[in-house]
Automatic annotation (TrEMBL):
Keywords: Membrane, Transmembrane, Transmembrane helix. This is Uncharacterized protein. InterPro entries: DUF6056 (IPR045691). It comes from Paenibacillus auburnensis. It comes from the Bacteria. The chain crosses the membrane at residues 12-32, 96-115, 127-148, 154-171, 178-196, 202-219, 226-245, 281-297, 306-325, 331-349, 356-376. The lineage of its organism: Bacteria, Bacillati, Bacillota, Bacilli, Bacillales. The keyword Transmembrane helix applies.
Length: 703
């Protein structure tokens, strides 16, 4: 149905007018977000002639750069050529073009469902639904839609592929949307070349779609048009030049450690699990539910829709599977695959009750507007803080300071807000590219930091917990990782600007891993504390899944004994805390837990656990000095005889058990059985035996 209004003898289609109005709003919104988005690492790097230190100054410089990249880094020279063109002419032009490409994506997804003139109620409804689906289901929008280098690599390459594939899609239904003549054949050849030479996942998706379409059309119609052949030829040529570029192998050798085939497959499976079961779970569930629903409805047209939806889904999903050939699998690589799955959802939705679709659309409007508003506010903040940073850099250079410390962005990175910032490591690639772009000697984030320097880089995910008085928890923690050779062998952990009493370092997530630590450095502005291997052996206390800790000549060697290795050390950078040493008469294999009361009673946050693995000496470091009471839990077994020689508390002389009990201590599910020489023996009387030392401050003071 069309609604038309006559104004001054001119007919205006109201639905087309609304779609144009919405398009202007969308363009304006994304234009603003693109304007707020700063340059990140890639923009700083590509602002120079690749392989040199001279900034881009002409188109010839871009050609030189792409020649260097093709043989030394990547085959994506068409895409990266476009990136450098915008870096040469200015980001304002990119902001305009990128907003247009986002609109093109919406129109192309709509057009893949059916031929449209965008002038009726169904077109308006689908335009809104596609916009909502893209907003909620597009992978890592911040990386693929706003970031200059990322959007050209993923958004633009997807648009190139969709434009190229549109005639193929309708040829499957024996519909010709372009003429079968020489002009069309030439145009399709170059469109195919652009699609194939754009980005690896895009090329794979296009090849699978065209190859499957060729088999179907030959089987059904026995012939293909000229443009089909020329377009396919262009696609294959482009894909070959892209995938076989010498730079691909050079980049892999420079960036990535030598991975066995087994390790690469395991990494791919882990990434696929995370993407499908976490990041894009709703997308796959939605496709599965809609596919099953359409499969069982009664409709003569459903076979055609199911076939096309399956072709689109499988073409897109192949781009996921193709990542098995890559050493890493970032979520942004799934962009074109997710777009193809969204198109398949739209095709299946044509068989749903249209009133139901409108109801879903109305329900989604409120969270959509909330999300749109939140993102605008976040990106506006990023843009404002980036302007402040540039001011700090300019003032520093003016004052002759070329070693700059910058504040961290207050907005945290997310799927929609992409932050590829400088780090605490002045030698990290993003720091070096930033410094080079602005003419600095160095640049870092201005924050307290703990640095673990390894003897050799070990690929792993590392974690540091810091106790600020609330015990260890998932809020007070910092992550760092080594994923490729550019990460180096120093692990940087961000610390809060507040007192820290103790740390727990989790050296990775793999069992039987050998890790050498040269030193640990804690730094806050000009205050620096270094610990070498010998000092670390005294400081680091194995807590869990640590097989051995050995002091080598110039480093400390750790061998992990499980997938959750943990080492603890008290932070003498802030407070030495309290050390408790218990000498047992016999070796124990129990988990001992020590609770310390800081004035609020005993609780899990204020406690430490020590795994006794056939040991007769317990050493625990507590993160405070002003401890009121202590409680030592001696495992969870009943009827066990435990002999205790001495308890030594730091800052006091040795306190013998016989001097403590009866004066300031109490036994819980524990009974004193006998005394042999200087050893007090106890029998556990329940599954939670413990003894408590009360008024510790007074005892230490008196002793």
């Amino acid at each position: 149905m069309k609604i038309e209004i006559n104004v001054d003898d001119k007919t205006i289609n109201i639905y087309r007018a609304i779609i144009i109005f919405l398009s202007i709003i969308i363009f304006g919104y994304f234009f603003k977000l693109n304007g707020f988005t700063p340059y990140w690492n890639d923009e700083f790097y590509y602002s120079f002639i690749s392989g040199g230190d001279t900034k881009l100054g002409s188109i010839y410089d871009i050609i030189r750069s792409q020649h260097y990249l093709y043989f030394n880094w990547t085959g994506r020279i068409l895409i990266h050529g476009i990136v450098q063109i915008f870096l040469l002419v200015g980001k304002d032009y990119f902001n305009i073009f990128n907003s247009i490409f986002l609109l093109l994506l919406i129109y192309l997804v709509c057009s893949f469902v059916r031929v449209r003139k965008f002038n009726n109620k169904e077109d308006l409804r689908d335009f809104i639904i596609v916009t909502l689906l893209l907003w909620f289901l597009m992978p890592v929008m911040g990386q693929t839609t706003f970031w200059l280098a990322g959007s050209i690599n993923y958004l633009w390459s997807t648009v190139f592929v969709l434009v190229f594939l549109l005639p193929y899609r309708y040829l499957l239904e024996d519909k010709y949307i372009i003429k079968n003549n020489i002009a069309s054949a030439v145009i399709m050849f170059f469109l195919g070349l652009l699609a194939g030479w754009s980005q690896e996942n895009a090329a794979v998706t296009a090849v699978v779609f065209v190859g499957t379409a060729f088999i179907f059309i030959i089987y059904k119609y026995k012939k293909v048009p000229y443009w089909f052949i020329s377009g396919s030829a262009g696609l294959i040529i482009g894909a070959v030049f892209l995938l076989l570029a010498p730079g691909n192998g050079v980049r892999k050798e420079k960036m990535y450690f030598d991975l066995s085939l087994k390790d690469q497959i395991q990494g791919f499976i882990q990434s696929m699990n995370y993407i499908m079961l976490h990041e894009q779970l709703f997308l796959f569930i939605l496709f599965l539910v809609m596919f099953i629903f359409v499969l069982f409805i009664k409709s003569e047209l459903k076979i055609k829709s199911i076939g096309l939806a399956l072709l689109l889904f499988l073409s897109g999903f192949t781009s996921y599977l193709a990542m098995i050939a890559s050493p890493e699998f970032p979520t942004r690589a799934t962009f074109i695959g997710a777009i193809f799955i969204i198109i398949s959802l739209m095709i299946l939705s044509t068989h749903l009750n249209q009133k139901f679709l409108v109801a879903i659309m109305i329900v989604a409007i409120i969270p959509f507007f909330l999300s749109v508003t939140n993102l605008y506010n976040d990106m506006q903040t990023v843009g404002h803080e980036n302007a402040q940073r540039e001011k700090v850099v300019a003032e520093s250079i003016e004052n002759g300071n070329y070693d700059v410390r910058l504040p961290e962005y207050s907005v945290k990175g997310s799927d929609r807000v992409f932050i590829f910032d400088i780090t605490m490591n002045p030698k990290y690639t993003s720091n070096e590219h930033f410094a080079k772009f602005y003419g600095l000697d160095s640049v870092v984030i201005d924050t307290p930091v703990l640095v673990v320097e390894l003897k050799e880089p070990v690929i792993n995910q590392y974690q540091l917990y810091y106790d600020t008085g609330k015990g260890y928890n998932e809020t007070d923690t910092s992550y760092a990782g080594i994923y490729n050779q550019t990460d180096g062998k120093r692990i940087y952990f961000k610390l809060p600007n507040k007192p820290i009493y103790r740390f727990r370092f989790d050296p990775g997530i793999h069992a039987n891993e050998k890790i050498g630590i040269l030193k640990i450095t804690i730094q806050n502005k000009n205050i620096i504390k270094n610990y070498d291997g010998a000092q670390l052996q005294e400081m680091l206390i194995p807590q869990h899944d640590i097989y051995s800790v050995t002091n080598k000549v110039d480093y400390l060697e750790l061998i992990t004994g499980g997938s959750d290795p943990q080492l603890e050390f008290v932070n003498d950078y802030t407070d030495k805390g309290t050390s408790v040493t218990i000498d047992f008469a016999d070796k124990l294999s129990e988990e001992i837990q020590i609770f310390y009361d800081l004035g609020k009673g005993f609780n899990e946050n204020n406690s430490v656990k020590i795994e006794m693995n056939d040991d007769n000496k317990l050493v625990a470091h507590l993160p405070a000095k002003n401890i009121h009471d202590l409680r030592i839990d001696l495992g969870n077994k009943q009827g066990v005889s435990i002999g205790i020689k001495t308890i030594n508390i730091e800052a006091a002389k040795t306190i013998e058990i016989k001097d403590i009990f009866g004066k300031a201590s109490s036994l819980i599910q524990l009974e004193k059985s006998q005394v042999k020489g200087d050893i007090d023996y106890f029998i556990t009387k329940g599954n939670d035996p413990s003894f408590q030392i009360n008024d510790l401050e007074s005892i230490l003071a008196s002793e």
